[in-house]
Amino acid sequence: MLRTRIYTALVLLPLLLAAMFYAPRVVWGGLLMVMMLIGAWEWGALAGWRPAGRVAFASTQGIFALILWQFVYRVDVPDLRLSVVVYGLSLLFWLLIAPLWLARQWRVSSPLAMFAAGTVLLLPAWLALLQMQAQAWLLLMLMAIVWISDTAAYFCGKRWGRRRLAPDISPGKTWEGVYGALAGVTVYYLLLSTTGAVPPGILQGLAGCGIFVLLTILGVEGDLFESWIKRTAGVKDSGTVLPGHGGVLDRIDALIASMPAAALMLSVG
Q1: Residue boundaries of the structural domains of the chain
Q2: Taking the model in full, what pTM does it have?
């Protein structure tokens, strides 16, 4: 399984980076939309919907994305305020609703609630990754927060993990792993700062370090949230489209929670 995971990553990562840095916006947006639609299909399965309901949900997300694209890029004067509203709704979900959902371990069966939650998860992440491609190096820098966080959490949890973070949701995660993730991302930020890689603006100084820490916490929350949704659905993975990795949602859960917040802060900073 580990070998399969490595092979899949070795194939997909260069393609992702090539598209991020060199693909025209319409191609990048199209690739992201394919990922979002697969994620929407997987979300429908986790919600317990039949194929017709999953198709309807994925189609609706595609339509919403095209409408956003129209207003953000295809009008004479792009309305960036719409992006801020979309990102703000995502941040409110992750700061207010998702913590309650996890703390109370809600088992939501309402199709309307799952439709709304899936939309707030998928659509802002799609728009954030689309818009931040304009600064591809910055986007890569921010996405690396998730990768570094995951790696540091895994090794610190494996070496020192004792106290379970959320045993009823994801038994393998520990508080020591979270502390390791925060420490790893802090070191990452300090290295970026000392080498002058952090761009001017809101990401400078203590504010920038705080943003990196916040994005790390949101990434952990996104991972936990998807784990809980899978647990309530009684499945190990959200899908099988990525050999060795599971589904698309399994790979982007932390990005779903953190990238809209990053885009929001860059928009208003």
Answers
A1: 2-268
A2: 0.93
